[in-house]
Amino acid sequence: MKSTVNQTHVRSINQRVILDAIFQVDTVSRAALSRSLNLSKVAITENLSFLLDLGIVKEVGTGQSQTMGGRRPILLQFNKDYKHIVAIDLVYEDAIFSLANLAGEIKNKFTIQVSNTSPYAVRFELMKNAISVLLSSQNINADDIAIIAISSPGIMNPQDERYQANEQFQNWCMDDLSLQLKEHFSTEVMIVNDVNAAAIGEFNEGAGRTSHNMLYVSCGLGIGAGLILNNTLYEGGSKSAGEIANFITDAESKHPVNLEKRTNTDSLLRRVRKEAPEETLMKLECHESFTFKDIVRLWREGDDFIDTCLDDIAKNLAVAFSNMVSLLNVDLIILGGEYRVFSERMLPIINQIIENTAFSPIPVVESHLKYDASIHGLLTLARNKVFSQICNKNIKKAQ
Q1: Of the candidates 7, 11, 12, which has an alpha carbon nearest to the alpha carbon of residue 391?
Q2: 208-368: same fold as 84-198+374-391?
Q3: For 119-177, what is each residue's pLDDT tens digit?
Q4: The CATH number of the domain covering residues in 208-368
C-alpha cells in the first residue's frame, strides 16, 4: 500500500509539473515537454493521458517535424475554458463580482453597492443572484464553475478553521457564506485575505512583476500588508502576517493609538470635521455627513487643509514602511487601497523619509492594478487550487 501511495504521489507531482508547463505556453509537443521537464517520453505519455481525458489539456493539430520526412508532432494546448472561476472582492460598501476562465481572462465584471447595515440574509441573496447573473451572461451553468473565490479583510484561524473578519465585514458571516454557497452551487469555495490577494495580483500582473521580495500595503478604510518573500506569499504561523494595523505609534500614551487609527479614512474624516477651517467646510455640501469621496474632490481642487492632513498621514505611513524595509529587506513597496488616489501627494514624502531612514532604501510606488488587484490575485490563487485538486485526485483514491 505504501509503495502504491508513493507511486501515486509521484504521478500527481508529474501531472502538476506537466500541467503548469503546458499552461505557460501557447502550444507544445510531447517531445518538447520531455526535454524541458527532463521526464521520459513514457512518463509524459502516461501522465498526459489523464489530463487529456479530463479535458483540461487538448490536442490542437501538428507542428513542424524535427527531421526530414519525420512524423509531424501533435501539439498540446491548455484548455482555458475547461472550467470557470467566480472571483468576488468584498470592498466595504461595494462588492466586485467577476467571471473568468482558467487563464484569468475576465468574461464579465460588475460592482454592486451593499449597504453596511444590510443583514446577512440579504447579502446571501445578493451574492447568489449576482453569481447567477455572471453565469447567465456567458450562457454557462453551475457545473461549469471550478471554484468560487472570495477576498475579504480578515484571517482564517488555523486552530478552529473559522474566518475572523474585520469589524466592518462581520455582517457577511464568512463561514456561513462559504458553506451555503458551496451547497447552493455545488462547488468549492475559498476565502482569501483581501490584501494577500492584492499582493499576489500586483506581483504577477502589476507593479511587482520584476520584484522577488515585496510588500503590498493597502491604506484607507483600514491598513494591512501582503508580503511576497522569495517569490512566495508569506502568511506566518497563524496566517496573520502583515497585520500592521496594530503597529504602535506612541508608546508613552496611557492609551496607545495604533497605526490604523492614526491613518484610516475614519480618522481623516474626523479631523476634517473637527479641525478644518471655515473655507474648507464651506466647500462641503453638508458639514456633518460628507464622505471620503468629498475629501478626494477637495484635494483635487487644491485645498490646503486636506494637503496638510495627507502629509501627516504620509509621515506616519513612512515611519512604518521604513521599519518594515529595514526588517525584511524587500526590494519594493506598492501602495494600494483607497489612499492610492493620493499617490501624487503622499509618495514623495514617503520615499524621502525612507531614503533618509531605512537601512537599505527601496522605492514605494503606486498600485498598477488599482481596485482590480485583489480580483487578479484571486484568479491566480483559485487556478492554483484547481490545478492541485485535479492532480491530487489519484492520491485521495489510493488512500
Answers
A1: 12
A2: yes
A3: 999 999 999 999 999 999 999 999 999 999 999 888 777 566 677 777 777 888 888 99
A4: 3.30.420.40
pTM for the model: 0.90
According to the model, what pLDDT value does residue 161 have? 67
User: Is 90 exceeded by the pLDDT of residue 196?
Assistant: yes
Confidence at 308, pLDDT banded by 50, 70, 90:
very high
Backbone angles phi, psi at 319, to 5 degrees: -60, -45
Q: Which residues contact 254 (CB under 8 A, 6 or more apart)?
A: none
Helix (H) or strand (E) holding 28, with range, is strand 28-29
Going 276 to 282 to 288 to 293, the CA torsion angle's sign is negative
Q: Minimum mean pLDDT among 187-191, 200-204, 224-228, 238-242: which range?
A: 238-242
The 3-state secondary structure of 43-103, one letter per residue: HHHHHHHHHHHHCCEEEEEECCCCCCCCCCCEEEEECCCCCEEEEEEEECCEEEEEEEECC
Given pLDDT bands bounded at 50, 70 and 90, which one contains residue 35?
A: very high
State the pLDDT at residue 393. Answer: 74
- In the three-class reduction of DSSP (H, G, I as helix; E, B as strand; rest coil), residue 191 is classed as strand
Domain boundaries, the chain: 2-79, 84-198+374-391, 208-368
CA–CA distance, 293 with 278 (Å, rounded to integer): 19
Residues 226, 242 contacting (CB under 8 angstroms): yes
Q: How many whole angstroms from its chain centre is CA 249?
A: 28
Cβ–Cβ under 8 Å, residues 28 and 48: no
DSSP string, 300-338: HTT-HHHHHHHHHHHHHHHHHHHHHHHHH--SEEEEESG
- Provide the grid cell at 129: 443572484
Longest pairwise C-alpha distance within the chain? 86
For the domain made up of 84-198+374-391, give the CATH fold.
Nucleotidyltransferase; domain 5 (3.30.420)
Say which CATH topology domain 2-79 has: Arc Repressor Mutant, subunit A (1.10.10)
**DSSP three-state, residue 138:** coil
**Contact in structure between 83 and 386 (CB atoms under 8 Å):** yes
Lowest mean pLDDT among 16-20, 34-38, 68-72, 162-166: 68-72
